[in-house]
Protein backbone atom coordinates (compact mmCIF):
# COMPACT_ATOMS: atom_id res chain seq x y z
CA UNK A 1 0.00 0.00 0.00
CA UNK A 2 2.51 2.58 -1.15
CA UNK A 3 1.84 6.25 -0.44
CA UNK A 4 4.59 7.79 -2.53
CA UNK A 5 4.74 11.58 -2.45
CA UNK A 6 6.48 13.39 -5.26
CA UNK A 7 6.64 16.58 -3.23
CA UNK A 8 8.42 14.91 -0.34
CA UNK A 9 11.82 13.31 -0.46
CA UNK A 10 14.34 11.72 1.86
CA UNK A 11 16.93 11.59 -0.92
CA UNK A 12 19.56 13.04 1.41
CA UNK A 13 19.75 9.59 3.03
CA UNK A 14 20.79 6.23 1.64
CA UNK A 15 17.63 4.65 3.05
CA UNK A 16 14.36 5.77 4.59
CA UNK A 17 14.48 3.00 7.21
CA UNK A 18 17.26 0.76 8.50
CA UNK A 19 16.19 -2.29 10.51
CA UNK A 20 18.87 -3.86 12.71
CA UNK A 21 18.07 -7.56 13.09
CA UNK A 22 16.45 -10.04 10.71
CA UNK A 23 14.44 -12.24 13.05
CA UNK A 24 10.63 -12.22 13.42
CA UNK A 25 10.53 -8.68 14.86
CA UNK A 26 12.87 -7.17 12.27
CA UNK A 27 11.29 -8.87 9.25
CA UNK A 28 7.76 -8.02 10.37
CA UNK A 29 8.79 -4.39 10.80
CA UNK A 30 10.46 -4.29 7.41
CA UNK A 31 7.43 -5.77 5.65
CA UNK A 32 5.16 -3.02 6.92
CA UNK A 33 7.53 -0.13 6.19
CA UNK A 34 8.43 -1.44 2.73
CA UNK A 35 4.79 -2.03 1.79
CA UNK A 36 4.12 1.61 2.60
CA UNK A 37 6.76 2.54 0.05
CA UNK A 38 9.65 3.37 2.38
CA UNK A 39 13.12 2.34 1.19
CA UNK A 40 13.94 -0.30 3.81
CA UNK A 41 17.10 -2.31 4.40
CA UNK A 42 17.41 -5.07 7.02
CA UNK A 43 20.86 -5.85 8.42
CA UNK A 44 21.04 -9.42 9.64
CA UNK A 45 24.05 -11.47 10.68
CA UNK A 46 21.94 -14.53 11.46
CA UNK A 47 22.16 -14.12 15.23
CA UNK A 48 18.45 -13.95 15.94
CA UNK A 49 17.55 -15.52 19.30
CA UNK A 50 15.02 -17.73 17.52
CA UNK A 51 17.90 -19.79 16.19
CA UNK A 52 18.35 -21.22 19.68
CA UNK A 53 14.98 -22.94 19.26
CA UNK A 54 15.15 -26.61 18.23
CA UNK A 55 11.75 -26.66 16.50
CA UNK A 56 9.11 -23.94 16.60
CA UNK A 57 5.72 -25.39 17.52
CA UNK A 58 3.57 -22.39 18.49
CA UNK A 59 3.94 -20.04 15.51
CA UNK A 60 0.48 -19.45 14.04
CA UNK A 61 -0.14 -21.07 10.67
CA UNK A 62 2.06 -24.16 11.05
CA UNK A 63 -0.09 -26.93 12.61
CA UNK A 64 2.81 -29.38 12.99
CA UNK A 65 5.36 -26.69 13.79
CA UNK A 66 8.15 -25.53 11.52
CA UNK A 67 11.90 -25.93 11.49
CA UNK A 68 13.82 -22.73 12.12
CA UNK A 69 15.72 -22.78 8.84
CA UNK A 70 12.52 -22.89 6.80
CA UNK A 71 10.88 -20.20 8.91
CA UNK A 72 13.92 -17.95 8.44
CA UNK A 73 13.77 -18.48 4.68
CA UNK A 74 10.05 -17.70 4.63
CA UNK A 75 10.50 -14.53 6.69
CA UNK A 76 13.33 -13.24 4.53
CA UNK A 77 11.51 -14.18 1.34
CA UNK A 78 8.44 -12.27 2.53
CA UNK A 79 10.50 -9.22 3.47
CA UNK A 80 12.20 -9.17 0.08
CA UNK A 81 8.88 -9.67 -1.70
CA UNK A 82 7.57 -6.61 0.15
CA UNK A 83 10.53 -4.59 -1.10
CA UNK A 84 13.15 -4.89 1.64
CA UNK A 85 16.83 -5.37 0.96
CA UNK A 86 18.43 -7.87 3.33
CA UNK A 87 22.14 -7.40 3.93
CA UNK A 88 24.31 -9.85 5.96
CA UNK A 89 26.45 -7.13 7.56
CA UNK A 90 26.98 -6.30 11.22
CA UNK A 91 25.89 -2.90 12.54
CA UNK A 92 28.62 -1.75 14.91
CA UNK A 93 27.28 1.66 15.93
CA UNK A 94 24.70 4.35 15.35
CA UNK A 95 25.15 8.09 15.63
CA UNK A 96 23.22 11.17 14.69
CA UNK A 97 23.93 13.08 11.51
CA UNK A 98 25.34 16.58 12.02
CA UNK A 99 21.94 18.20 11.62
CA UNK A 100 20.26 15.63 13.89
CA UNK A 101 17.70 14.69 11.25
CA UNK A 102 18.90 11.15 10.59
CA UNK A 103 21.44 8.49 11.50
CA UNK A 104 24.85 7.32 10.41
CA UNK A 105 25.10 3.53 10.54
CA UNK A 106 28.61 2.21 10.96
CA UNK A 107 29.04 -1.28 9.53
CA UNK A 108 31.78 -3.80 10.16
CA UNK A 109 34.30 -3.51 7.36
CA UNK A 110 31.92 -1.58 5.11
CA UNK A 111 31.53 2.11 4.29
CA UNK A 112 28.97 3.71 6.68
CA UNK A 113 25.50 4.49 5.37
CA UNK A 114 22.77 6.91 6.41
CA UNK A 115 19.08 6.47 7.18
CA UNK A 116 16.25 8.79 8.12
CA UNK A 117 14.92 6.37 10.73
CA UNK A 118 16.21 3.27 12.53
CA UNK A 119 14.33 0.29 13.97
CA UNK A 120 16.37 -1.75 16.46
CA UNK A 121 15.14 -5.36 16.39
CA UNK A 122 17.92 -7.24 18.19
CA UNK A 123 17.23 -8.87 21.53
CA UNK A 124 20.60 -9.59 23.06
CA UNK A 125 22.79 -6.60 22.34
CA UNK A 126 21.94 -2.91 22.25
CA UNK A 127 25.56 -1.82 22.52
CA UNK A 128 25.52 -0.40 18.99
CA UNK A 129 23.02 2.24 20.21
CA UNK A 130 25.22 3.54 23.02
CA UNK A 131 26.31 6.59 21.02
CA UNK A 132 22.71 7.83 21.04
CA UNK A 133 22.40 7.64 24.82
CA UNK A 134 23.03 11.29 25.74
CA UNK A 135 21.22 11.07 29.07
CA UNK A 136 22.57 7.67 30.10
CA UNK A 137 19.01 6.35 30.29
CA UNK A 138 19.26 3.62 27.68
CA UNK A 139 21.34 1.29 29.85
CA UNK A 140 20.91 0.21 33.45
CA UNK A 141 23.35 -1.26 35.93
CA UNK A 142 22.82 -4.55 37.74
CA UNK A 143 24.96 -6.26 40.34
CA UNK A 144 25.68 -9.94 39.86
CA UNK A 145 28.08 -12.00 41.98
CA UNK A 146 29.51 -8.83 43.45
CA UNK A 147 30.21 -7.24 40.08
CA UNK A 148 28.32 -4.51 38.29
CA UNK A 149 27.08 -5.14 34.76
CA UNK A 150 25.39 -2.82 32.30
CA UNK A 151 22.43 -4.00 30.23
CA UNK A 152 20.09 -2.34 27.81
CA UNK A 153 17.03 -1.11 29.71
CA UNK A 154 14.14 -3.29 28.54
CA UNK A 155 11.69 -0.55 29.53
CA UNK A 156 13.44 2.18 27.54
CA UNK A 157 10.96 2.11 24.64
CA UNK A 158 7.24 2.72 24.81
CA UNK A 159 4.79 -0.06 23.92
CA UNK A 160 4.48 1.35 20.40
CA UNK A 161 8.24 1.21 19.85
CA UNK A 162 8.92 4.93 20.19
CA UNK A 163 11.87 6.09 22.29
CA UNK A 164 13.22 9.34 23.81
CA UNK A 165 15.54 9.54 20.77
CA UNK A 166 13.63 11.02 17.85
CA UNK A 167 13.26 8.59 14.94
CA UNK A 168 14.85 5.68 16.84
CA UNK A 169 12.36 2.86 17.34
CA UNK A 170 12.77 -0.34 19.34
CA UNK A 171 11.10 -3.49 17.99
CA UNK A 172 13.10 -5.88 20.16
CA UNK A 173 10.88 -8.22 22.21
CA UNK A 174 11.55 -6.57 25.56
CA UNK A 175 9.34 -5.89 28.55
CA UNK A 176 5.68 -6.89 28.30
CA UNK A 177 6.16 -8.26 24.79
CA UNK A 178 7.78 -11.43 26.09
CA UNK A 179 10.13 -13.68 24.17
CA UNK A 180 7.84 -15.87 22.07
CA UNK A 181 8.53 -15.61 18.33
CA UNK A 182 4.92 -14.82 17.49
CA UNK A 183 4.87 -12.01 20.05
CA UNK A 184 8.14 -10.66 18.64
CA UNK A 185 6.61 -10.51 15.15
CA UNK A 186 3.64 -8.60 16.54
CA UNK A 187 5.98 -6.18 18.26
CA UNK A 188 7.80 -5.60 14.99
CA UNK A 189 4.55 -4.90 13.15
CA UNK A 190 3.35 -2.47 15.84
CA UNK A 191 6.65 -0.61 15.81
CA UNK A 192 6.62 -0.36 12.02
CA UNK A 193 3.15 1.18 12.12
CA UNK A 194 4.54 3.80 14.51
CA UNK A 195 7.24 4.54 11.94
CA UNK A 196 4.73 4.86 9.10
CA UNK A 197 2.52 7.12 11.18
CA UNK A 198 5.52 9.31 12.02
CA UNK A 199 6.27 9.58 8.28
CA UNK A 200 2.65 10.49 7.56
CA UNK A 201 2.69 13.24 10.17
CA UNK A 202 5.94 14.57 8.73
CA UNK A 203 4.38 14.62 5.27
CA UNK A 204 1.61 16.84 6.57
CA UNK A 205 -1.17 14.48 7.57
CA UNK A 206 -2.96 15.87 10.65
CA UNK A 207 -2.53 13.77 13.79
CA UNK A 208 -6.15 12.66 13.57
CA UNK A 209 -5.50 11.20 10.11
CA UNK A 210 -1.97 9.88 10.52
CA UNK A 211 -3.17 6.46 11.69
CA UNK A 212 -2.33 3.64 9.30
CA UNK A 213 -3.52 0.15 8.54
CA UNK A 214 -2.58 -2.30 5.81
CA UNK A 215 -5.72 -4.23 4.92
CA UNK A 216 -6.80 -5.47 1.48
CA UNK A 217 -10.57 -5.62 0.97
CA UNK A 218 -12.94 -7.33 -1.47
CA UNK A 219 -14.10 -5.13 -4.33
CA UNK A 220 -17.65 -6.38 -3.80
CA UNK A 221 -17.69 -4.42 -0.53
CA UNK A 222 -17.21 -1.22 -2.51
CA UNK A 223 -20.80 -0.69 -3.62
CA UNK A 224 -20.40 2.78 -5.13
CA UNK A 225 -16.92 4.22 -5.61
CA UNK A 226 -18.20 7.76 -6.15
CA UNK A 227 -20.23 7.65 -2.93
CA UNK A 228 -17.28 6.13 -1.09
CA UNK A 229 -14.99 8.92 -2.27
CA UNK A 230 -17.47 11.53 -1.07
CA UNK A 231 -17.82 9.76 2.27
CA UNK A 232 -14.05 9.60 2.81
CA UNK A 233 -13.68 13.22 1.72
CA UNK A 234 -16.12 14.21 4.45
CA UNK A 235 -14.33 11.87 6.89
CA UNK A 236 -11.02 13.57 6.10
CA UNK A 237 -12.35 17.13 6.34
CA UNK A 238 -14.20 16.46 9.60
CA UNK A 239 -10.96 15.37 11.25
CA UNK A 240 -8.75 18.23 10.14
CA UNK A 241 -8.21 20.80 12.86
CA UNK A 242 -8.90 24.44 12.01
CA UNK A 243 -5.31 25.34 12.81
CA UNK A 244 -3.75 22.63 10.58
CA UNK A 245 -1.31 25.17 9.12
CA UNK A 246 -1.31 23.67 5.63
CA UNK A 247 -1.94 25.49 2.39
CA UNK A 248 -5.26 24.52 0.87
CA UNK A 249 -3.59 23.05 -2.21
CA UNK A 250 -1.38 20.83 -0.05
CA UNK A 251 -4.33 19.77 2.09
CA UNK A 252 -6.32 18.86 -1.03
CA UNK A 253 -3.36 16.85 -2.33
CA UNK A 254 -3.13 14.87 0.90
CA UNK A 255 -6.89 14.31 0.90
CA UNK A 256 -6.90 12.95 -2.64
CA UNK A 257 -3.89 10.72 -1.95
CA UNK A 258 -5.53 9.26 1.13
CA UNK A 259 -8.77 8.59 -0.72
CA UNK A 260 -6.86 6.92 -3.57
CA UNK A 261 -4.99 4.74 -1.05
CA UNK A 262 -8.26 3.55 0.44
CA UNK A 263 -9.79 2.81 -2.97
CA UNK A 264 -6.69 0.83 -4.01
CA UNK A 265 -7.24 -1.48 -1.05
CA UNK A 266 -10.19 -3.07 -2.85
CA UNK A 267 -9.39 -5.91 -5.26
CA UNK A 268 -11.55 -7.97 -7.60
CA UNK A 269 -12.47 -11.65 -7.23
CA UNK A 270 -10.14 -12.50 -10.10
CA UNK A 271 -7.29 -10.68 -8.39
CA UNK A 272 -8.08 -12.44 -5.11
CA UNK A 273 -7.83 -15.79 -6.90
CA UNK A 274 -4.61 -14.78 -8.64
CA UNK A 275 -2.98 -13.68 -5.40
CA UNK A 276 -4.17 -16.80 -3.61
CA UNK A 277 -2.66 -19.06 -6.26
CA UNK A 278 0.59 -17.12 -6.33
CA UNK A 279 0.79 -17.27 -2.55
CA UNK A 280 0.56 -21.04 -2.57
CA UNK A 281 3.09 -21.30 -5.39
CA UNK A 282 5.54 -19.25 -3.34
CA UNK A 283 5.03 -21.57 -0.38
CA UNK A 284 5.90 -24.54 -2.57
CA UNK A 285 9.32 -23.01 -3.16
CA UNK A 286 10.12 -23.69 0.51
CA UNK A 287 8.97 -27.31 0.59
CA UNK A 288 11.38 -30.14 -0.10
CA UNK A 289 11.05 -31.36 -3.69
CA UNK A 290 10.84 -35.00 -2.64
CA UNK A 291 7.91 -34.23 -0.34
CA UNK A 292 6.12 -32.49 -3.21
CA UNK A 293 6.75 -35.44 -5.52
CA UNK A 294 5.59 -37.92 -2.87
CA UNK A 295 2.38 -35.91 -2.40
CA UNK A 296 1.82 -35.74 -6.16
CA UNK A 297 2.25 -39.51 -6.49
CA UNK A 298 -0.18 -40.09 -3.63
CA UNK A 299 -2.77 -37.78 -5.22
CA UNK A 300 -2.41 -39.52 -8.58
CA UNK A 301 -2.78 -42.93 -6.96
CA UNK A 302 -5.90 -41.77 -5.12
CA UNK A 303 -7.40 -40.53 -8.38
CA UNK A 304 -6.72 -43.79 -10.19
CA UNK A 305 -8.30 -45.76 -7.34
CA UNK A 306 -11.39 -43.57 -7.28
CA UNK A 307 -11.81 -43.79 -11.05
CA UNK A 308 -11.45 -47.58 -11.14
CA UNK A 309 -14.03 -47.96 -8.37
CA UNK A 310 -16.89 -45.97 -9.88
CA UNK A 311 -15.68 -44.30 -13.03
CA UNK A 312 -16.52 -40.90 -11.60
CA UNK A 313 -14.00 -38.24 -10.65
CA UNK A 314 -13.74 -37.50 -6.97
CA UNK A 315 -14.29 -34.09 -5.41
CA UNK A 316 -10.53 -33.78 -5.22
CA UNK A 317 -10.28 -34.35 -9.02
CA UNK A 318 -12.69 -31.52 -9.73
CA UNK A 319 -10.72 -28.93 -7.80
From TrEMBL:
Alphabetic keyword roster: Flavoprotein, Oxidoreductase, Plasmid
Domain FAD/NAD(P)-binding: 15-81
InterPro entries (alphabetical): FAD/NAD-bd_sf, FAD/NAD-binding_dom, Ferredoxin-NADP_redctase_2
A single MF term (Gene Ontology): oxidoreductase activity
Pfam family, one: Pyr_redox_2
Highest taxon in the source lineage: Archaea
Gene3D superfamilies per record: FAD/NAD(P)-binding domain
PANTHER family hit by this protein: THIOREDOXIN REDUCTASE 1-RELATED-RELATED
Protein name (record): Thioredoxin reductase-like protein
Organism listed in the record: Haloterrigena turkmenica (strain ATCC 51198 / DSM 5511 / JCM 9101 / NCIMB 13204 / VKM B-1734 / 4k) (Halococcus turkmenicus)
